[in-house]
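queue> pop job 88
queue> type: inverse folding (structure -> sequence)
queue> payload:
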């Protein structure tokens, strides 16, 4: 039995697809492949400040459009397999705690009886907690994630990582504790846990 961290945005929830429907992205004709970083200030074609980039996420999570977000297609089947193998699954997300209730509600609708707990990093807030600290507090043994914003933090904590291939994490190379996968069938924790 392993304790597994499952990220929320882009691993369980197709968040970027929905955010791209907001006016600023449509106005600038931004496609998913243009999102080379989850820090929107780094998306060249978008050309927005750090503050506006952060606001895009906060506005979206606070809006009713949040409820239109679709689940990632492959996720439920894979998570059920992991659950059947007696692994304990936790949702650990960069989202702020102010969106806790709606996040838990949506995840439980799409992925019922899968998760043993929810943790929030509060990214961009004063009480932000690092991924490695959350992992250590919960004794997480393996991550399934797409974001490489905290790559150094996780690597220095020696936590194995299955990285889902996305436009914003190209360029990150596999190493002993990081395995990049690009499809559901490749999400195999036996890379790290026998
Ligand atoms: Mg994510």
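queue> result:
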């Amino acid at each position: 039995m392993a304790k597994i961290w499952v990220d929320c945005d882009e691993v369980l929830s197709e968040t970027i697809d929905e955010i791209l429907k907001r006016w600023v992205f449509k106005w600038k004709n931004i496609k998913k492949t243009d999102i080379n970083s989850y820090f929107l200030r780094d998306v060249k074609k978008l050309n927005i400040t750090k503050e506006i980039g952060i606001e895009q996420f906060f506005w979206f999570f606070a809006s009713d459009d949040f409820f239109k977000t679709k689940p990632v297609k492959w996720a439920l089947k894979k998570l059920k397999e992991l659950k059947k193998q007696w692994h304990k699954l936790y949702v650990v997300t960069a989202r702020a705690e102010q969106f806790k209730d709606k996040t838990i509600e949506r995840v439980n609708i799409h992925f019922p009886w899968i998760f043993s707990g929810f943790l929030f990093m509060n990214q961009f807030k004063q009480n932000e907690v690092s991924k490695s600290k959350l992992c250590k507090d919960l004794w997480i043994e393996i991550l399934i994630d797409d974001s490489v914003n905290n790559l150094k933090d996780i690597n220095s904590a020696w936590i194995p990582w299955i990285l889902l291939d996305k436009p914003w994490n190209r360029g990150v190379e596999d190493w002993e504790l990081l395995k990049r996968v690009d499809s559901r069938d490749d999400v195999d924790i036996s890379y790290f846990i026998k």
